[in-house]
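Annotated sample (chain length 282).
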Amino acid sequence: MKTAIVTDSTAYVPDDIKEELGIHTIPLVVTIEGKAFAEEVDLTTDAFYELVRGKGPLPKTSQPAIGDFEALYEQLKQDYDAIISIHLSSGISGTYMGAVQAGEMVEGIDVIPFDSEISACPQGFYVMRAAQMANEGAEPDAIIEELTKMKKTLKAYFMVDDLSHLQRGGRLSGAQAIVGGLLQVKPILHFEDKVIVPFEKIRTTKKAMKRIADLLAEDAKDQLLDAAVIHANRYEEAIEWKEILEKKHPNVDFTVSHFGPVIGTHLGEGAMGLGWVKRRGT
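Output written by the structure step:
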């Protein structure tokens, strides 16, 4: 059985990997001063941060139209027997439900939506694992079983410079944002039950990064991991952090990823995160 792997732009899978593994991507949309851009199609990440820096109103983000999903699925059914469609957490976006609805509208192919319950590069971990297995000829059920197993070991923590982006975008409760602002803290955030919640409140960025690194170290003690340092326009700091972590954890395969326009709208410039998952076959 030939299985297509679909994701959305918020997985931020590098173009060369998408091409190599045959991953199909549907973009979310970011609207800046009334002009809509398809993420990573009409607007690069670097251009986005340059465009919004110092501006007043936050950009707005929106999920792909169901018709866009339907059109992609109709196209894919010409060459594939099944589609696994992997998307950002249903707790912060309607994208997953759009995939569900579109899948029910397309006849002649089995569409299996998968809620990653997360976003950015950790979502990409699921996508790349699924695509590798699909290319090896794995059945859809086996791929979904592997993705479900991954949820037990996949973790991600991140911090933001300014909680107001998450608050105004409705991705963090107002009370939590106000408390964070009053205490002048750098809270560590994570996904829990599909939504973004505080994990711990830390006083400084340096201490927050150390705490996240300590959480990684706990899991890296006795297993091989794939990990990603994820940044919102903090490339040099991300590279530096990656190099420090690599020296401490030779059993972890690190990469550097980014928060693109859609996720960057809600986290704000300067956000930094770290995600990891148990390596396949270990």
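Annotation: The longest helix spans residues 120-135.
Annotation: The longest strand covers residues 225-231.
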